[in-house]
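Progress note, project year one: complex with S-adenosylmethionine.
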Amino acid sequence: MDLWFEEYQTKDMVIACRVRRTLHEEKTPFQNLAVIDTVEFGRMLVLDNVIQTTIRDEFVYHEMITHVALNTHQKPVNVLVIGGGDGGTVREVVKHQSIEKVVHCEIDGSVIEAAKKYLPEISCALEHPKVEIIVDDGIKHVRSHKSHYDLIIVDSTDPVGPAEGLFSAAFYQDIHACLTDDGIFVAQTESPFFNGELIKRIHQDVAGIFPLARLFLANVPTYPGGLWSFTMGSKKYDPLEVDRANIAKLDTRYYSPDIHFSSFVLPPFVQELLK
Ligand code: SAM
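Model obtained:
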């Protein structure tokens, strides 16, 4: 039989992938969770019918949401990952020698369990001795910790449901207070094609709170439009002033010293959003 998974990436645009089989389906207290095996992208994590990550293209997103900021900070020791229940972000963070502790705060424990069972290539560092998993709301965690983390990574779902507050100015204020004096914050901030107004608002909020706000881009084939944005707020370090010679050699497939700098080169239509 011919089976297809369809995601309405906008109300008028669909991405469809041929499905080999459904591996897991569950209604958690927060969302509908599925893991499906697709022909083109391999195993795929889907939440509320929205593609989160796939075995084939996950490296782009996970390497870019981590290494750009980790290599911008001079000595990141304590890192907080909010969301990211599949574990891909944590897997990349522990590649850095300076890291002593990664606190992983994911609201939905079922995502972590499903990733451990069906996506071992992505979730493989969740049991790492430097990783502490907390199943809780990231908003709450950030509010209750002051001057604590060198880097906070927000690897969230789209700004609806439990993730809505992760895109608010009030949350960015709490993040600022939760970071050490030279701390950095980075978040996935959706598609420049389809979420321009959101990106504009986030950039204004972050630029109003942090001395430095920067946007960078990567290409994630399964996300709407492919072109994806990340927003960084930094108290001290500028990702564009990183000394190339200090970028450690990492086992990566998308991120590289050249990509570190080129990802900040923005097409004029994206620059326009940041004015
Ligand atoms: N790479 C993905 C993307 O852009 O589609 C995000 C993947 S990751 C699975 C997103 C995670 O954020 C989900 O597992 C979801 O449960 C979690 N999440 C949503 N809101 C949250 C919150 N307030 N606190 C902590 N985790 C949250």
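The mean pLDDT is 97.
The chain has two domains: 4-54, 58-273.
No further modelling is planned for this target in the current period.
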